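Can anyone check this?
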Amino acid sequence: MSEIIRDEFGVTEYKGVAIVSSRFVADVFGKRHDNVIKAIERAECSENFRNLHFKVSFYREGKGKYKEYLLTKDGFAFVVMGFTGKKAAQFKEAYINRFNQMADFIKSLSAAKLEFPEFTAAIMAIHEEPKHYHFSNEINMINRIVLGMDAKQYKVASGIPEEAQSIRPYLSVQDIKGIESLQRFDIGLMITHPDFQERKAILTNYYSSLNELKLLKAISA
């Protein structure tokens, strides 16, 4: 499993999907792991649902190798719907929030990787525990400087399908070059200026300088 995000609930990413191990479910809800496995294997669901939302995996403990299941958000909901009590209800709500946060994180990470892998790596390097908003904040900061709006606003303004992962295919060459220039510059800034607001001010001034230079070149041409 990926170790992109790991918290007390164990929600993480596996091949682009938010999942949780049956071991974490057992631990958090105070259940024996073998009973959670039995609940999964006895679940009265279709084979298609089972194949999509319950993936068999194995983990090592000492010299032994043991089975666990990786559950998607829907798989998790199916299994724990029978868990009752006030504490169980609180954990269910917390898990749903964790799954939603992870889904946002994966979406932001995928877009960042698609647009600039080195930029993604730099963001992950400066945060001990990267969260989804670290990526979206950094990307949208640059989008606002270059485009005057964040990606979501740009989609609406340009009529881009909401499900589109990246706005890059819809940008002009000039906008793409502007974003790439700021991303390259930002990689170094993340090391020397870890404060977000400081980077924002420096990048804004840098982009203004780039545009002034382009204007001077156009006038002198």
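Reply from J.R.: I decoded it. Confidence is low (pLDDT under 50) at residues 1-6.
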